[in-house]
Automatic annotation (TrEMBL):
PROSITE patterns per the UniProt record, alphabetical: RT_POL
Protein name: Reverse transcriptase domain-containing protein
Any Pfam family: RVT_1
Species name: Meganyctiphanes norvegica
Domain Reverse transcriptase positions: 1-220
C-alpha cells in the first residue's frame, strides 16, 4: 500500500448533508453579493467551470499573439491541497470574509474535534485526531477550500493568476528581460503565500509553457 495515493473521505448522514447544503447556499450567496470571491477562481463557483477558465486563458494568449509578443505561463499544483488546510488559518479567513455569528461558530465546530480511523487488510487502526484539512466528501469542503485559497494572488502586482480550486496558473506577457524577472518575483510571492499558509506545492506537477515570440530578448 502507498498511503500517499489515498484520500480520507468523511461520511456524513443524509440529514447532515441537507443542512450543509443549506449553509453552503447561504455562504455562496453572501460571497457573491459581497463580491468576496476571487475573480480568477473558476472552481466550485456558480456559472464558472473548467471551460470558463480555459476561455479566459485562451483570451490572454490570443491578445498577446495579436500584439506580436510572447506570454509565459507556469502551471502549479498544491500537494494534497484539501488535506493540508490549517483550521485556524481557514477560520481566520472565514471571519475575514464576514462569515461570523452563529454560522461562523458552527463552521468552527464543523472543522474541529474530528476523528478518523484507517482500515487496511481487514485491520482497523486506533482513533486519531484530524489536525488539518477540509472534510473531503462533505458538501461544504469545496466552498471552504476556495475561501482558504482566495487571497493567493493578493500580493501579485503584474502577472495574471487563474485558478480552478487548487490548480493554479500564473501568466505574464514577456516583452523584455525585466518581464521575466517580474514573473519570477510573482512566482516567489505565491511560494511565500504557500509557506505562510502551511501549504506546499507538488513540484513534480509543475509545467511551463510559452506562446508567441518575444522580440529583442534572449529566450532561455
Amino acid at each position: 500500500l502507498k498511503p500517499e495515493q489515498y484520500r480520507p473521505v468523511s461520511l456524513t448522514s443524509h440529514v447532515m448533508k441537507i443542512f450543509e447544503r443549506v449553509v453552503k447556499i447561504n455562504i455562496m450567496k453572501h460571497l457573491i453579493e459581497q463580491n468576496l470571491l476571487n475573480p480568477g477562481q473558476h472552481g466550485f463557483v456558480p456559472g464558472r467551470s473548467t471551460k470558463t477558465q480555459l476561455l479566459q486563458h485562451y483570451c490572454d494568449i490570443f491578445e498577446t499573439l495579436s500584439e506580436g509578443t510572447r506570454i509565459d505561463t507556469i502551471f502549479l499544483d498544491f500537494a494534497k491541497a484539501f488535506d493540508k488546510v490549517d483550521h485556524d488559518i481557514l477560520l481566520q479567513k472565514v471571519a475575514k470574509h464576514k462569515i461570523k455569528g452563529k454560522i461562523g461558530l458552527w463552521l468552527q465546530e464543523f472543522l474541529n474535534n474530528r476523528k478518523y480511523r484507517v482500515v487496511a487488510n481487514g485491520e482497523m487502526s486506533d482513533v486519531q485526531d484530524v489536525l488539518s484539512g477540509v472534510p473531503q466528501g462533505t458538501v461544504l469542503a469545496a466552498v471552504l477550500f476556495i475561501i482558504m485559497i482566495s487571497d493567493v494572488d493578493e500580493n501579485i502586482k503584474s502577472s495574471i493568476v487563474r485558478l480552478f480550486a487548487d490548480d493554479t496558473r500564473i501568466s505574464r506577457k514577456i516583452t523584455s528581460e525585466e518581464d521575466k524577472v517580474l514573473l519570477q518575483k510573482d512566482l516567489n510571492v505565491i511560494y511565500d503565500w504557500a509557506n505562510k499558509n502551511l501549504m506546499k506545492f507538488n513540484e513534480n506537477k509543475f509545467e511551463q509553457m510559452s506562446h508567441g515570440e518575444a522580440k529583442n530578448i534572449k529566450i532561455e
